[in-house]
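As the work plan foresaw, the team has encoded backbone shapes as discrete tokens. One protein thus recorded appears below exactly as we store it.

:::
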Amino acid sequence: MTQQNTITNEDSVYKKKLFYDNGKEFTKVESKIINEYKPPTPVTKSHANQTIMSSSGLVQSGTAHYTATLTLLFYSKKEYADWIQYIGAQHKYYDEKGSVYVGIVEGSPDVRTAEMETKYMVSVNFLFIRKQDFEYRYESNFLDTEGHWAEKYITEMQEMGLVTTAWSSDGTDVEYFRPNDPITRAETISLMMRAYRYMDKLLRGF
């Protein structure tokens, strides 16, 4: 298990980040997020869910959504202007825990100026859907699957977290998948439980 620094808090370890879609790629919003620690709030099925999914291109991405109010500090008018022209675009947010959310701005931002009107403090309400964390947490390091007829499926299953991850109990890499070995009853149950949890996360919009 990784060492934890007891002096620092979540915000110093997992920096909050916000990006917007400029039509070609996600670009970081050049501002400092100055909220206190508070993860997005989950909201179950509602009329807003279909609206957010349609507007953000997230149709069939879950049955729940999340709300969050972010306060952004822009240090110049240019930084603020670069972002405000894309305020209606899809946004991607990384919270203090490293979770990834995508969504849109709800309503109009509350804009205040500071220090001779050279800085802009903007409070923005967001509607988010949480992205599946397997998209960035799991990578395949198996040495015995290259060229195997099931290589593609094995890789996809590991990326979704449905087969053993890249770490064994003693912290060393798992190098061999053993694709031609028979599956045990214990392995079958483990796979079924991971699949159940994965489907549960999808249905709840996680």
About this structure: The chain has two domains: 10-131, 135-203. Confidence is low (pLDDT under 50) at residues 1-14. The chain is about 25% helix and 25% strand. The first helix runs from residue 10 to 13.
